[in-house]
Design brief:
This protein is mainly alpha-helical and about 300 residues long. The protein folds into two domains: about 5-105, DNA polymerase, domain 1 (Orthogonal Bundle); about 115-290, hpI Integrase, Chain A (Orthogonal Bundle). The chain contains 14 helices and three strands. Helix 2 crosses helix 4 (about 70-85), helix 6 (about 115-120) crosses helix 10 (about 220-235) and helix 7 (about 130-145) packs across helix 11. The longest helix has 20 residues, at about 20-40. It is elongated. The termini are far apart. Mean pLDDT is about 85; it is low at about 285-300.
């Protein structure tokens, strides 16, 4: 199994499985150092990679001055590559089986917006302007459903059921499909966009749900751009991205007592352990809120 050919085939496999273009690009970038490492060790066939080779590479990555998460990004594609080769019976033994992505345990918790910050952020779009009304509909949908940005921009018009207040996600991560609730508020804003804005912008047979004023499908970068503008206008110091709204949705649901398995289904996580990561945010939030609101905290008795 030629190293270059096999890794290229692996990247094509990820794309065919519905992985986001950004994820595939990240895998490609972070597999490059591993390919260089194999070349330095004169290994041109992945069948020649041993447990010792993988362990030596792990130690080499750990010895760098990269941040913990960056080290994990170097190792994760290597693990997934050999897991795939073993699962497809191209390898009898997975030499990377014992490698641990240590950053999963120690990585920093991403920012989560408070209910007050969400309210302030949502108030930034001027609903009398078409673009802003569409943006408010997108923001409400992201916060209500926890939808991934790649899933959002790929939504079709028929995927939204305003009567049932649900969204069908047909192009989820790993080609997984699911139906998620959007709630009354998001449905109302989405309905306004569909009634007043989208018909005026529609050009030809475009079936994507969210369009720009030229009739083209919205992109992830379009969404990230207006979120940044609204964050600055709202005076929110935390970074606000599509992932921030997804994380905030999950954290607020868990804080309100939602069953973690419900949140797992909502977010489309394959493994419960991924959803459980969000529970690490709660103690941090509770402590911060306690410090700000408890009448005796910070005061001498």
């Amino acid at each position: 199994m030629d190293v270059v050919v096999t890794i290229l085939a692996f990247e094509n496999y990820l794309s065919s499985c519905g992985y986001a273009a950004g994820t595939v690009a990240s895998y490609r970038v972070n597999l490059a150092p591993f390919m260089d490492y194999l070349k330095q060790n004169r290994i041109d066939d992945l069948r020649k990679v041993t447990v010792q080779i993988i362990e030596d590479y792990w130690r080499q990555v750990m010895a760098t001055e990269l941040a913990t998460e960056s080290k994990a990004l170097r190792l994760r594609p290597v693990k997934r590559l050999f897991e795939h080769l073993a699962a497809t019976h191209k390898l009898l033994i997975n030499p990377a089986e014992g490698i641990v992505e240590t950053c999963r345990k120690h990585r920093k918790i991403g920012p989560v917006l408070s209910p007050q910050e969400i309210e302030t952020l949502m108030a930034q779009p001027d609903a009398t302007r078409r673009v802003h009304l569409r943006n408010r509909a997108i923001m409400e949908l992201m916060y209500a459903s926890g939808i991934r940005i790649n899933e959002l921009v790929n939504l079709q018009v028929d995927d939204a059921d305003l009567g049932e207040q649900t969204v069908f996600i047909g192009k989820g991560k790993g080609r997984k499909q699911r139906v998620v609730p959007m709630g009354k508020k998001a449905a109302e804003w989405l309905g306004r966009y569909l009634d007043k804005i989208r018909p005026a912008w529609l050009r030809g047979e475009q079936s994507r749900l969210f369009l720009n004023h030229h009739g083209r499908a919205m992109t992830g970068n379009n969404v990230r751009s207006f979120l940044r503008r609204y964050r600055l206008a709202a005076g929110i110091e935390k970074p606000v991205s599509p992932q921030t709204l997804r994380r905030t949705c999950a954290t607020h649901l868990l804080a309100a007592g939602a069953d973690i398995r419900y949140v797992q289904e909502l977010l489309g996580h394959s493994r419960l352990v991924t959803t459980q990561f969000y529970t690490r945010v709660l103690p941090v939030q509770i402590k911060a809120t306690h410090g700000k609101t408890h009448p005796e905290v910070g005061h001498e008795n």
